Amino acid sequence: MTQANGLQFSGHQYLRHRLVLSILSGKALKIDKIRPDDKNPGLRDYEVSLLRLVEKVMNGTVIEISLTGTAILVKPGIIAGGPITHDCPLSRSIGYFLEPLIMLAPFSKKPFNLTLRGITTDDKDLSADLLRTVTLPHLEVFGISDGLELRIKKRGSPPLGGGEVQFLCPVVKQVKTLNFVEPGKIKRIRGIAHAVRVSPQFSNRMIEASRSVLNRYIPDIYLYSDVYKGEDSGKSPGYALTLLAESTTSAIHCSEVVSQPGVAPEDIAIQASRALLREIQRGGCVDERHQTLVLLMMVLGSEDVGRVRMAEPTERTIQFLRDVKIAFATSFKITPVDASSEGPAQLLYSCYGTGYVNTNRSLA
Amino acid sequence: MSEDRPHKAHHTAQSGRKVDKKGKGKEKQTGFNEKAFAPKSGRRAERQGRRTAEKDQTRLHVPLVDRTPEEDPPPVVIAIVGPPGVGKTTLIKSLVRRYTKQTLNDIRGPVTVVSGKKRRLTFIECNNDLNSMLDLGKVADLVLLMIDGSFGFEMETFEFLNVLQSHGFPKVIGVLTHLDLIKKAATLRATKKALKKRFWTEIYQGAKLFYLSGVLNGRYPDTEILNLSRFISVMKFRPLVFRNQHPYLLADRFEDLTAREEIRLSKGKCDRTVTVYGYLRGTNLRMGMKVHIPGVGDVDMASVSALSDPCPLPNAESEKRRKLSEKKKLLIHAPMSDVGGVIYDKDAVWVNVPGSFTRGSTDVPQGEGEQMVMDLQDVDETLEDVVVRSQIRLLGSSSKSITVGPSSSGIDRQDSDQEDYDDSEDEGGEDEDDEMESGSELDDAEWMNADDDTELSNTGRSTHRVVQRSTAKLSGARAAGGGGVAFADSDSEMDEDHDNAAGRRVRFNDEDEDANISSDPDDEDGDVKWKANLAERAAEAFELSSKRTKRRDWTKLIYSSNTTPADIVRGSTTADDQPDEDDDLFTVKKATDDAEALDRTKDLVPVDELKQWEDEEVLDSIRHLFITGGDDVGDEAEYEDAEGGGEYEDLEASEGEDGENTPRAQDPKAALAAKKEALKRKFDEQYDDPESAKQDFYDEKKDEIARQQELNRAEFANVDAETRALVEGHRPGLYVRIELADVPCEMVEHFDPRRPLIVGGLLPAEERFGFVQVRIKRHRWYTRTLKTNDPLIFSLGWRRFQTVPIYSLDDHSIRMRMLKYTPEHMHCYATFYGPVALPNTGFCAFNSLGTETAAFRISATGVVLDIDRSAKIVKKLKLTGVPYKIFKNTAFIKDMFTSALEVAKFEGANIRTVSGIRGQVKKALPKPDGAFRATFEDKVLMSDLIFLRAWYSIQPRKFYNPVTSLLLSTNTDWSGMRLTGQVRREEGLSAPSNVNSTYKPVDRPGRRFNPLKVPRKLQASLPYASKPKLMKPQHRATYLQKRAVVLEPEEKKALAVMQQIRAIRKDQVVRRREKQQERKEVRKKKVEKDEERKSEKKREERKEHMRVAGIKSKREAEKEEGGSRKRRKT
Predict the structure, then answer these.
(1) Are A126 and B600 a contacting pair at CB < 8 A?
(2) Interhelix angle B667-687/B633-645, nearest 10 degrees
(3) Is the pLDDT of residue A212 over 50?
(4) Class for domain A186-282, per CATH?
(5) What pLDDT score was predicted for residue B356?
(6) pLDDT at position B403
(7) Euclidean distance between the first and final Cα of chain A, in Å?
(8) Widest pairwise Cα distance in chain B
(9) Contact in structure between B271 and B747 (CB atoms under 8 Å)
(10) Which residues of chain B have pLDDT under 50?
(11) Tell me: the pLDDT tens digits for B666-708?
(12) How far is B872 from chain A (nearest CA, A)?
């Protein structure tokens, strides 16, 4: 799928990681057949917004969208970073926009200071809480830690949003090589229950219900009730429970369930707890939703062998691995872990890093 | 009388000092005297301690990762550099002779020899032109810098050293030759000393400098070469940062693969396909990487393939002895040096007859005979080896083959991992039928058992355990459906298995149901039973899925099939061959439901999957994943049971299985041992001093690097070469063949093996272009300053290119201010458009690479700081205007702008008069175009000039001109963009003169200041202080002027005396001066005489010197036979 020097894909799926790969590898990205047979063909508003955001973050990027919106061409420039503010459309949450930018942020010229406004929590993408408590620790194992922060200034639930987060990320020269094969045992469970523009009792009820499931395993459980009042609580009512389990080797597994109309908070909490147990059972050192992030950072590592133990790849991960091969000419060696443990199979992903060095970083 | 009588001997003293001394001497013990080295005082002890600590610090260097593999490293590149006629070729010949006992007649291109058990060397001679020096400076690991001792250093030597410095200094050994031409011993000693001193200041104090005396039989003396080779063999190399980031290759062979017909049709002008061969160095080379060939340009690699090593290191088989055998010593690899058609091989001399086919040209159709001969040539092992390596399996499924001889195939099999077992299973499945038909000695039942056993032991013991636990029927069902156990039932079922993995799962569930039904009647309470079974079922389901993964080769599924990700996750792997095969005219359009699929991170968790967590047993089943869950002792007990329960008899597998089984049987034991070990370590750590175990930062880092390298080695140690190349690319140390497509034909036409051909890999970032900001300093030996927007040739990264830099300086950290010229003795910034290089890469710059100048050619050096897509350089722009109407502090200004729009742009801008009155632009005026109102802090004058200081941003010109020296017949032919002045000079044009720029005498009208007139009335009313006090000049003489002065007699006398004294003094001074003048005359004459004598002597000396120089140059000329470039003495 490579041209002379460029990446060519078709379909609207996986736009985000393809953008990221294109920007990091510096190869032009051409995507066609974006919803050609749809009643409303072409890019959606949030996708256009993402492209605009990418343009803001970068310097010298050329983005061309065809007349019908069914094809785009991105010629990436360099990642500039610095203070940026962006209003996200209400069709997707902030997570949709932040996930690709988290992959880019460590390789920018100036430290990121990104303010995003919109919906902070929804059921499609990682919520601000998950990004803060799970995604950022995943970056820390790659040596991106000093000054890495996500501040949730305001919460905003769908449909009207009104939330605001600030993402600060330092600049690194090169990410560390990962060697994470020991999943360890779960030593603590943490959680955040938040409820905005509804009765504050909701979060307490969620905590109670969740504890009823999780208390059997481990005593070290703290579920926080996160309260935002007034202006900071956004424009729409909503609540959610975010759970994460940390192992002795600091592998993190997480789950999150967001309020649905007509579902009691207890049910939400129990769903979240069970989803967490399912995630724990799947095992590995990396959470299912962060597979792509971890694999990308491994590819970008120094020219050493990086290894990580994870559960089976998800659909997104599989496509991601294929796209990585096109963009970076690197493939992973995937071998099953010797099955001394029962439970679902775990795989050992090992790859030889490409020795990606942050060329944008300035010495002057 | 006294002569013949012998002297009486002295008595030995019986007492006194001497006796005391001697007695002590006898008591003195031999051996180490600790007192002798003990410090006398505490202070000295402290000082000594400090010194050892300091010395310890000097051995520390920043820990850097060395990407060169320890086993099978690429040959060390040794560049032999020096001016023409200094003896480079002689040195290579001598060294090659030393290593291989062969004399090369004509050396072209790199020559690779084996120098020791772990080291190979590649010698390459460097031409005397800058392009070759630049390229070799980037790849050489060791430089033998040759200096003509009888002549001294030449400019090129210094240039080369500076090139090395900016591209990461490799090791340098100086070699002084032509010392035999200096006859006088004293002169020789002095010359050596002087040259050494200069050499040391250039490299470092104590740098190694070799002296080679004369030439014997066309070689340097053997002992001296032996010494040099010993130095080379123990040389250690520190990893250089740039080379540890890039793969590169010094080509030692070059072939043109383009079809002859195509060349003929295009009259040789078509783009060529070429291959280059060489040892890979630096980092791993991946397919899909772009490469840069300095002197040619960026090229895409069409293919890379690893070849067998033409000059291999001795290995265990070839070398049983400690020393390198004589036979191995003969190995030399220099494919381009085969002038006269002679190539030396291990034990033969090949005579190459032009016109016959060669192995390189694969495009030329070859006859059967040629093909056969070539195939024969390909065989690199004897028949015996093949026989030894071949293996016979008694049965298709047996995992251990019957081996012949002491070959290590058995070990291989043990090394191979799970995948291999999977493969062998598949093979076994196919072979099964044949085996059955042929009728083996074993009966079927036993056969099945054997199969089962091998299978189970291959795929892990979880399966084993389940089989033991469930009912017989269930086990049968599992055996049929459980994916991994594909042997027990008929083939058809197995095929089904392969075809439809999704179906497999469904069917399995059905059978599971069956099992349940069958077990139902046994229990009274079906419901309870159902619940009880739930956990088991769940566990089975997991095992199934785990089994499925084990059977699936994820790497293959993801990378070499076109199954959609969704299908892979769901588990159906059959889609690979579907889409391409049906060539129907019409295809039914598949309902693409993914049009609405969102790009979402959080996948929906299926509710039914969460349902199972309602069950207690399922909840308990993951208890072991928590720290509170304890160890899985119970599991181990079960394992034990399972092992005991299996009373299989397998005959031929047993041998192989033993190796597999024993570790498992010992597993608990091993685990226990490991646990004990860990406990012991923990105790030790706590009990011993915790500080002692801690390493310092340096050792920690080094350990970390070593650990990572160990891991790198281990991870791909037993992966086959092809997969390895796919995952990690080609390793340094391999001999590779790189095919390059679409190379300019000039490269082939003008190919000269004497010019180094380098293939340098580019990082993804380096393929792109942008504005590069560098810190630059004009070289202090370069005689001219550098001017902004003058073209400069950079040697940066792998590339050499000409571009147009703009110099700038940081102005108070506010702006980057353009500089017209580089500052003296100071760094400044330069920004140019060109290919990106990583920050911190060093470079050197030239104004010209040609030989037309005798002066130092490196004009600047520096380092890359920043990469961007836009440049932020500004230059000062002053807009001037004049007031045409002045109010109090307000004035109307014109002539600064031309339109109201421009004024609007500058509203609020600061302006100033030349006299320093500050003001602000207010608003545009309607009447004269571009006029505006401005306010000032004071009243301005009509004569004031008003100016506005602005900054105008400039971008460097997007000019990039690669130095394509390899596309020309000689390296020095290349000429880039010329300066306007150069063009004019060459065209014989004079600079155009602008009339407005010519100098004319300035005649400024003198300013007339009117006298200040204060009306009398006003004067009268003014206070005294403010009254004008100017008075008219006096017309008449005043009294003081008019009065006559009459002196008193005493006064008169005093005055007369004073006058006389002054007169005497004056006379004295005059006479003294005259005397001095005379003395000066005399001295001047003397000096003149001396001068004359001296100049005479000097003339004589010069004459003598010229005579000697003339003789020498004549000799040189004879030796070089008219060498091209004339020498430049520093």
Answers:
(1) no
(2) 150
(3) yes
(4) alpha beta
(5) 44
(6) 47
(7) 38
(8) 167
(9) no
(10) 1, 339-341, 344-349, 352-357, 361, 363-365, 396, 403-530, 546-549, 574-584, 587, 591-593, 632-665, 1126
(11) 577 888 888 888 888 887 777 766 565 567 888 888 888 888 8
(12) 13
Tokens found for residue B923: 């608003």
Tokens linked to A357 = 């060095």
At residue B623, the pLDDT reads 86
Interface contact A345-B545, CB threshold 8 A? yes
Q: Which two tokens stand for residue A18?
A: 């393809």
Q: Where are the alpha helices (DSSP H) in B352-406?
A: 368-378, 383-389
Q: Do A347 and B549 touch (CB under 8 A)?
A: yes
Q: Which of B598, B609, B708 sits opposite A304 (nearest CB)?
A: B708
Q: Which residues in chain A have Cβ-Cβ distances shorter than 8 Å to B242?
A: none
List of chain A residues whose C-beta atoms are within 8 Å of the C-beta of residue B415: none
Contact (Cβ atoms closer than 8 angstroms) between residue B331 and residue B325? no
Strand partners, B301: B740
pLDDT score recorded for residue B698:
84
| 3-state secondary structure labels for all residues of B497-513 | HHHCHHHHHHHHHHHHH
**Rounded-to-10 torsion of CA B694, B695, B701, B707:** -70
- State the Cα–Cα distance between residues B1002 and B287, nearest whole angstrom: 71
Domain extent listing, chain A? 1-77, 186-282, 287-352
CB contact under 8 Å between B555 and A281, yes or no, is no
Q: Which residues contact B597 (CB under 8 A, 6 or more apart)?
A: A13
User: Chain A contacts of B728, Cβ < 8 Å?
Assistant: 305, 352
Nearest C-alpha neighbor of B508 from the set B536, B476, B467, B464: B476
Put simply, the answer to whether A315 touches B565 (Cβ < 8 Å) is yes
Query: Shortest CB distance from A335 goes to which of B283, B418, B627?
Result: B418
How high is the pLDDT of residue B607? 76
* Backbone phi, psi, residue B694, to 5°: -75, 135
pLDDT of residue B1120: 79
CB B866 within 8 A of CB A364: yes
Q: Minimal Cα distance from A352: which residue of B?
A: B728
Instruction: Write down the pLDDT at residue B805.
Output: 96
Output Rg (C-alpha) for chain A, integer angstroms. Answer: 20
* pLDDT (0 to 100) of residue B452: 41
pLDDT value at residue B1053: 94
CB B453 within 8 A of CB B658: no
To probe the interface with B, which of A291, A312, A350, A356 has the most B CB atoms within 10 Å?
A312
The shortest C-alpha distance from B500 to chain A (Å) reads 20
Tell me how far the alpha carbon of residue B611 is from its chain's centroid: 56
Contact between residue B971 and residue B127 where contact means Cβ atoms under 8 Å apart:
yes
- Identify the closest residue of chain B to A335 by CA–CA distance: B554
Residue bearing the bigger pLDDT, A135 or B17 = A135
Contact A132, A168 (CB under 8 A): no
Q: Do A13 and B597 touch (CB under 8 A)?
A: yes
Per-residue pLDDT at B658: 39
- ipTM for the predicted complex: 0.91
Q: Which of B601, B618, B705 to probe the A interface (max A CBs under 10 A)?
A: B601
Q: What does the buried/exposed string (b/e) look like for B766-784 if buried means 16 or more CB atoms within 10 Å of the residue's CB?
A: bbbebbbbbbbbbbeebee
Residue A340 scores a pLDDT above 80: no
Residue B319 pLDDT: 57
Asked if the Cβ–Cβ distance from A278 to B602 is below 8 Å, we say: no
Nearest to B545 by CA among A165, A311, A116, A121: A311
Interchain pair A343, B622: CB under 8 A: yes
Task: Give the nearest chain A residue to B764 (CA atoms).
Answer: A25
Q: How many CB pairs under 8 A join A and B?
A: 249
Instruction: Tell me how far apart the 2 most distant CA atoms of chain A are, in Å.
Output: 60
